[in-house]
User: What shape does this take?
Amino acid sequence: MNIKTPDDARAFRDTLGAFATGVTVVTLPGIDGGGEPIGVTVSSFNSVSINPPLVLFSIDKSSYSLPAFEAASHYAVNVLEESQEALSNRFAMAGGDKWRGVDFEGWDTGAPILKGALAAFECAAHHQYDGGDHVIFVGRVLRMASLADARPLLYVRGHYTRLADD
Assistant: This one.
């Protein structure tokens, strides 16, 4: 193992990349209940608490959609299934027509729930924290659903990967 310090940003990023993560798309309803919904690909998602049910994700401060997330009262976290790599790539882009042909539904808050997602969490905004070059969002889970027999889309060392067959 080659020991380094985190002042080398590339080495820090590469070392973090050794940790495999699931891939999510976090979504907001259209601004003021109208217009096109907002969605971004996020791999920094995890549980915080069972009681109360809290999850977190973070968004880069340079993200075009950050102000909408900071103002949002509700959002949805969609955990992608292994066949949804194209959705991950689409929502990772800045700008563009992200929603064309995307099949989704709205639950009680109207935050888009992507059809075919491995799991979905509809959340009320709970807290926001400064996280260096990111903003950390903590949401209180209001509703959730998951597919029992689907497999997650994973990301490790800068590439998508899939679980090996059992």
Q: What stands out?
A: The mean pLDDT is 92. The first strand starts at residue 21 and ends at 22.
